[in-house]
């Protein structure tokens, strides 16, 4: 018990030392904000932590001055994000205040932490207008990537000030314009009932990317067509392989008196010829993915996919003395040749194919 307590003590001491070192390192590197947060965290855990006290005493005024100076310099500049940066800076100062006030150790050092609540409110008003105007500029460029950027700008504007101008309506319009619409269909070009690729396609749905069945009419025509064709399933005949080895072992057959009059074990060598068998069945499912541009019927991707799945089984037989068997050989000789469940083999192969289709589609649509 004492040993365990000692180990725990060492671990805790090591963690505290590492934290203090990281706080001092942040201070030396000019990361005053991180140095403050790290030291406050340590003082929350240990009120009298000397190293954390030293770091906080030095880092706090430097952090506030550094953030304030950065904000003021930004406001005077032509930076198109100056008010959004100002919001971020004021939020950092207020966050430091919140952290200090939840740490008794830190409160003893920084008794009156600074806040910027009024400045933050004013900056949010200007940041909302800044983000909104930037969103309008991106909308005027009228490309899909610009619409996407405009969406995030209008979203920012609404976050800074709820319902700012027409930020919600413009955000919805930007999303609508930026969304790539794909009409998909799947066909079964075989006699097998493989299920459906619909869950795979549905998993691709995300912001700016919409998939709907060809038969389901959308509000606007699709920009792409996706067709997945299941081309069949094949299960090969079993293939066999084997190899043999001779095993030997010394076993006790009895006891007899030795020259010293004491009883001693009597040994003999037993052997067995073991033959190992390996059975392999490969099943494969096939599909094709075709993606075309709806505007000009250009083929964007045409892939033939397969998904081999291997079922294997091992067993063994022997001739000779069973006592010579041990380990793997002893286990395998208790087995007989086995046969897979055809439905399970089919299901596993289809699962592999669906995973392959999913991977290929995610890779293709990652560019959108």
Number of DSSP E strands: 7
Helix-strand topology string = HHHHHHHHEHEEEEEEHH
Class inferred from helices and paired strands: alpha/beta
Shape: flat
Q: What is the overall pLDDT average?
A: 92
Give the low-pLDDT segments: 15-20
The name CATH uses for the topology of the largest domain is Double Stranded RNA Binding Domain
Query: How widely separated are the two ends?
Result: 59 Å
Strand content: 25-35%
Biggest pleated-sheet summary: 7 strands, mixed
From the alpha-carbon coordinates, what is the Rg to the nearest angstrom? 36 Å
Question: What is the architecture of the largest domain at the second tier of CATH?
Answer: 2-Layer Sandwich
Number of domain units: 3
Q: Determine the oligomeric state from the structure.
A: single chain
Number of helices: 11
Assign the CATH class of the largest domain: Alpha Beta
Residue share in helix: 40-55%
What is the strand and helix layout of this fold?
Elements: H1 2-28, H2 32-45, H3 50-76, H4 82-100, H5 104-109, H6 117-141, H7 144-160, H8 167-178, E1 180-188, H9 198-202, E2 209-213, E3 224-235, E4 239-257, E5 263-293, E6 299-306, E7 309-320, H10 327-332, H11 342-365
Parallel strand pairs: 1-2, 1-3
Antiparallel strand pairs: 3-5, 4-5, 5-6, 5-7
Helix pairs in contact: 1-2, 1-3, 2-3, 2-4, 3-4, 4-6, 6-7, 7-8
Explain this structure to me?
This protein has 368 residues and is of the alpha/beta class. Helix content is 49%, strand content 26%. Strands 1, 2, 3, 4, 5, 6 and 7 form a 7-stranded mixed beta sheet that branches. Helix 1 runs antiparallel to helix 2, helix 2 packs antiparallel against helix 3 (50-76) and helix 3 (50-76) packs antiparallel against helix 4 (82-100). The longest helix has 27 residues, at 2-28. It is flat, with a radius of gyration of 36 Å. Mean pLDDT is 92; it is low at 15-20.
């Amino acid at each position: 018990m004492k040993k365990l307590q000692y180990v725990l003590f060492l671990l805790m001491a090591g963690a505290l030392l590492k934290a203090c070192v990281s706080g001092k390192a942040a201070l030396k590197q000019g990361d005053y904000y991180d140095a403050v947060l790290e030291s406050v965290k340590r003082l929350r855990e240990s009120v009298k932590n000397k190293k954390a006290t030293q770091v906080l005493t030095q880092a706090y005024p430097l952090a506030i001055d550094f953030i304030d100076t950065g904000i003021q310099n930004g406001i005077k500049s032509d930076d198109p994000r100056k008010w959004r940066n100002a919001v971020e800076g004021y939020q950092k100062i207020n966050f430091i205040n919140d952290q200090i006030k939840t740490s008794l150790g830190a409160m003893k050092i920084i008794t009156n932490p600074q806040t910027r609540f009024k400045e933050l409110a004013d900056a949010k008003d200007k940041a909302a207008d800044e983000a909104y105007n930037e969103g309008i500029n991106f909308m005027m460029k009228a490309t899909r990537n610009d619409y996407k950027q405009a969406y995030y700008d209008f979203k920012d504007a609404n976050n800074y000030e709820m319902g700012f101008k027409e930020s919600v309506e413009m955000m919805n319009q930007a999303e609508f314009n930026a969304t790539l619409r794909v009409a998909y269909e799947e066909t079964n070009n075989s006699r097998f009932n493989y299920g459906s690729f619909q869950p795979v396609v549905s998993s691709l749905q995300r912001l700016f990317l919409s998939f709907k069945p060809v038969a389901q009419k959308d509000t606007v025509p699709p920009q792409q067509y996706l067709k997945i064709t299941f081309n069949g399933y094949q299960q090969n005949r079993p293939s066999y392989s084997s190899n043999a080895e001779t095993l030997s072992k010394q076993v006790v057959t009895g006891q007899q008196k030795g020259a010293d009059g004491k009883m001693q074990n009597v040994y003999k060598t037993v052997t067995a010829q073991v033959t190992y068998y390996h059975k392999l069945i490969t099943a494969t499912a096939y599909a094709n993915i075709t993606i075309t541009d709806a505007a000009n019927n250009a083929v964007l991707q045409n892939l033939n996919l397969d998904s081999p799945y291997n079922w294997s089984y091992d067993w063994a037989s022997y001739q000779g003395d069973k006592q010579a068997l041990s380990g793997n050989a002893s286990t395998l000789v208790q087995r007989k040749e086995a046969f897979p469940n055809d439905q399970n083999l089919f299901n596993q192969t289809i699962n592999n194919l669906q995973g392959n289709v999913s991977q290929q589609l995610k890779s293709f649509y990652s560019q959108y």
